[in-house]
Design goal:
Layout lengths: L2 H6 L1 H6 L4 H13 L1 H19 L8 H18 L6 H14 L4 H22 L11 H24 L6 H10 L8 H13 L3 H12 L5 H11 L5 H13 L6 H8 L6 H15 L19
Length: about 300
């Protein structure tokens, strides 16, 4: 086994799910490779620190309902400026009720639709000899359909977050980092994992996956909603730093409360103070920041 494969197998080896032959080969490689030994030691140290954190209770179904209701309220407020927000919400709810919730059924339903479309096209559609020019609106519709087909795998992967073990959920979250433009369903599931998953590792990975998409309203509102109930200092600090980096002004009241909370971890309080100071300072892109004061002597 080479170093890359050994390090990729560390999580399975630690969980005891690595096949016996691979585990033996990994153990033999680890005994002779200083580089992999350092990586293994670093993973063990991180695991010990995470295990030392206080465990949080498994969220109840009512808590999940309340969180998603609050997230939907935040998002509805953010989308209220659009005249199509109500219609889009109605369509989303219609398809959520129409389509099966299980990923396997979703995939089977999609394949059935694709097969039906191919059959109908072969049976009834006969293209003319002269193909008319496609206008811009038609091109946009075709591009949108292609994007939906590309997102199908993302939808299945995101819906599995709630159905796997901790290590499998962690790998699923990490897989979303390779998606260049995840759709809204994937982002909402990542926000749900950030707020409700009992594993600190999964919540930290969800923050990392959401970092590249923090410019979207659903991500920002989800971070604000999750930070208000988060209790793990490592996760709190990561969320504070992400909200600060995108200069989310709505986080200022939360930062202020955390900075003055004597029961909070000192690192969380310090991070909240720094974040609050940055949010209250002029933006580096503010044109007034570099404006030179007028000189009365030159007036």
């Amino acid at each position: 086994m080479n170093c890359s494969r050994v390090q990729d197998s560390f999580i399975d080896y630690q969980d005891g799910t690595l096949p016996a032959g691979d585990a033996t080969a990994l153990h033999a490689h680890l005994a002779t490779c200083p580089t992999c030994q350092r990586e293994w030691s670093a993973l063990q140290e991180m695991t010990r620190k995470l295990d030392a954190l206080p465990a949080i209770e498994e969220p109840s179904p009512r808590l999940r309902e309340q969180f998603y209701a609050m997230l939907e309220t935040h998002q509805r407020d953010a989308d209220s400026v659009s005249p199509f927000a109500f219609a889009c919400g109605s369509i989303d709810r219609f398809f959520a009720a129409l389509l099966p919730a299980q990923p396997a059924l979703q995939f089977a339903f999609a394949l059935a639709l694709l097969a039906g479309g191919l059959f109908a096209g072969a049976r009834y559609f006969h293209p003319p000899l002269i193909v008319p020019a496609v206008d811009n609106s038609a091109k946009q519709e075709i591009a949108a359909l292609k994007a939906q087909m590309n997102d199908m795998g993302s939808l299945v992967a995101a819906s599995l977050l709630q159905q796997k073990s901790t290590s499998e959920r962690l790998q699923t979250v990490l897989a979303t980092m390779d998606l260049p433009s995840p759709n809204r369903r994937v982002l909402t599931d990542l926000v749900g994992a950030l707020a409700l998953d009992p594993s600190v590792n999964v919540r930290l990975s969800a923050i990392e996956a959401l970092t590249a998409h923090a410019d979207q309203a659903v991500v920002r509102q989800g971070l604000l909603a999750a930070l208000s109930r988060e209790s793990a200092p490592l996760v709190q600090v990561a969320m504070i730093e992400l909200l600060t980096s995108v200069r989310e002004s709505g986080a200022a009241p939360l930062f202020d409360r955390l900075s003055r909370d004597e029961t909070a971890d000192k690192n969380v309080r310090e991070s909240a103070r720094r974040g609050l100071a940055l949010l209250r300072s002029p933006s580096p892109t503010d044109p007034l920041k570099n404006k030179q004061p007028s000189n009365p002597a030159l007036s």
